[in-house]
């Protein structure tokens, strides 16, 4: 369940300008500094910071398991990956890149015993002896020309946007993890990690997070509510046809959520 619709902006840019306030000018460009937590533990989960996903790596294998799952990618504008190359394209858009602010965490369920693992599924061992099972991915990305521009009543006022970095959150989980609260637990943990890593967001001292959830996706709407994000309103998108949730769409209704992460 990926709750971002950023690539839809490609069919809508002729109607609204892209807010580029969060992009540094070339003479000011710099890499975000300060480390994000490499590993985050919650009572039930282990989240691992993903900074690269090379061929043959476990990171790429995790992502391909996710991206090639039709149900997991049902609400993703990217769609189901048909090849490892498709998965590489998907993950490269979410990994750290110069002059951007991107965070990606692979989410693993910590198993009580190996009997919790379905036959044939991959696992990893924790130092304490417990195994883990990959279940999803959480990402944060600063806005760029591909993101959907929003009216001020659904996002930050223009004056605030010049001093506040806006990032968009997205998450995708395998069907076996649905209805368990893992998405909410993961997002809350990532948000708290982002708050601890203030220097990562330099030169911005204020960070605003936004999310877009399809009106027909009530499960993701509940997740947003539980994370403390505010439902700002409903945005009606129209543009070039995209394939989503099993059909081609030229119009869609998106709930916009937002929250100040640092202020």
Task: Describe the model.
36% of the residues are buried. Strands 1, 2, 3, 4, 5, 6, 7, 8 and 9 form a 9-stranded mixed sheet that branches. The protein starts with 38 loop residues before the first strand and ends with a strand. Helix 1 crosses helix 2 and helix 4 packs across helix 5. The chain contains 5 helices and 9 strands; from the N terminus they run E-E-H-H-E-E-E-H-E-H-E-H-E-E. It is of the alpha+beta class.
The proportion of residues forming helix, as a percent range, comes to: 10-25%
What's the shape? globular
Query: What is the overall number of helices?
Result: 5
- Uncertain ranges: 3-33, 114-125
> Structural class from helices and strands?
alpha+beta
| Average pLDDT taken over every residue | 85
- Rg calc: 18 Å
Strand coverage percent: 25-35%
| H and E order | EEHHEEEHEHEHEE
> What's the count of strands?
9
The N- to C-terminal Cα distance equals 29 Å
- Main sheet overview: 9 strands, mixed
Spell out the key features of this protein.
263 residues; alpha+beta; 9-stranded mixed β-sheet; 9 strands; single chain
Question: What's a quick, concise take on this entry?
Answer:
With 263 residues, the chain is α+β, with helices and mostly antiparallel strands. The protein has helices spanning 58-67, 84-92, 158-161, 182-196, 218-227; strands spanning 39-41, 45-49, 102-110, 124-125, 131-142, 164-173, 206-214, 230-244, 247-262.
